[in-house]
């Protein structure tokens, strides 16, 4: 009895002709080829290094480090392990990257709004900022800032003091430091709990809107959780507020918090450079929202700020976030230029450890692993946020 299915359809129904099977097959082939090349490379390295009298291994990470890291956040001291030295450099890199991303995002939003401003002078100034910083090399900007902080600014005894307790000299920027007390920690914990509460309220309001078409207001509860709860906890703890002010003693300042010229150079250099690119990304995203959406919002009586917050930005974010992710990744990787201005980041530790141990392959492998992990975590966080702001079609 002849089959009722056409010959062509019967042939394509076989399991090896299915699209999913073919896709999985070629992915496995690509993965196998990559692993084969990697195995060949590792085999060559392990075979040739002993022939050249070079040891391979990561046991050197447990050796004591005979150098000092002048500026670190984990209290590294000479004599501790090389692994801890790498950890200190990694923390410094993460410190610069996180602060750079936050400050660059804020500055980029301000510049983007200025570029779109109807004020001609403000718009031209923002345009000049973008063109200057986008079209000059980042390394040149870092060196310029470092020379400015280290040589142009006055000595500590003639330091500039624009505000009481704030001093600017060639030794860095001296700021008042908050003396942390238990009430501050409790207030911070209350703020984090308030964030969790706001997230739950907004999620519940969104579900209510999807079910009934009416979104309940969460403004009062948000203010109470984010502002009222931490303030109440802080006041209940006695509201302690003690500042450690910097003071000139001898030839330098003591007390307070000091931002070194090296840290200021790499931080502000990354912020000014990256914000110029981010500002154009944000401006393009805002301009990507159709003019009819803005006209409709204004016809409903919304002012300029409400239109921007409720109508323009929610739609612009789905355009802004993907390229903004690339800018965040670029800023994180560009922090490796800190070695040019003397800031002890991960690359600085790498150069010193390589010179001391003679293990260039292992040292660069550690650096690659750290930067790869930071980039993947940044991309993961931004992808999660991108899915959150994306418009879901019904």
Automatic annotation (TrEMBL):
<comment type="similarity">
    <text>Belongs to the binding-protein-dependent transport system permease family. HisMQ subfamily.</text>
</comment>
<dbReference type="InterPro" id="IPR000515">
    <property type="entry name" value="MetI-like"/>
</dbReference>
<dbReference type="InterPro" id="IPR043429">
    <property type="entry name" value="ArtM/GltK/GlnP/TcyL/YhdX-like"/>
</dbReference>
<dbReference type="GO" id="GO:0043190">
    <property type="term" value="C:ATP-binding cassette (ABC) transporter complex"/>
</dbReference>
<feature type="transmembrane region" description="Helical">
    <location>
        <begin position="94"/>
        <end position="114"/>
    </location>
</feature>
<feature type="transmembrane region" description="Helical">
    <location>
        <begin position="363"/>
        <end position="385"/>
    </location>
</feature>
<keyword id="KW-1003">Cell membrane</keyword>
<feature type="domain" description="ABC transmembrane type-1">
    <location>
        <begin position="90"/>
        <end position="382"/>
    </location>
</feature>
<feature type="transmembrane region" description="Helical">
    <location>
        <begin position="263"/>
        <end position="282"/>
    </location>
</feature>
<feature type="transmembrane region" description="Helical">
    <location>
        <begin position="135"/>
        <end position="153"/>
    </location>
</feature>
<keyword id="KW-0813">Transport</keyword>
<feature type="transmembrane region" description="Helical">
    <location>
        <begin position="173"/>
        <end position="201"/>
    </location>
</feature>
<dbReference type="Pfam" id="PF00528">
    <property type="entry name" value="BPD_transp_1"/>
</dbReference>
<feature type="transmembrane region" description="Helical">
    <location>
        <begin position="222"/>
        <end position="243"/>
    </location>
</feature>
<dbReference type="GO" id="GO:0006865">
    <property type="term" value="P:amino acid transport"/>
</dbReference>
<keyword id="KW-1133">Transmembrane helix</keyword>
<protein>
    <submittedName>
        <fullName>General L-amino acid transport system permease protein</fullName>
    </submittedName>
</protein>
<dbReference type="GO" id="GO:0022857">
    <property type="term" value="F:transmembrane transporter activity"/>
</dbReference>
<keyword id="KW-0812">Transmembrane</keyword>
<dbReference type="InterPro" id="IPR035906">
    <property type="entry name" value="MetI-like_sf"/>
</dbReference>
<feature type="transmembrane region" description="Helical">
    <location>
        <begin position="24"/>
        <end position="43"/>
    </location>
</feature>
<keyword id="KW-0472">Membrane</keyword>
<dbReference type="InterPro" id="IPR010065">
    <property type="entry name" value="AA_ABC_transptr_permease_3TM"/>
</dbReference>
<keyword id="KW-0029">Amino-acid transport</keyword>
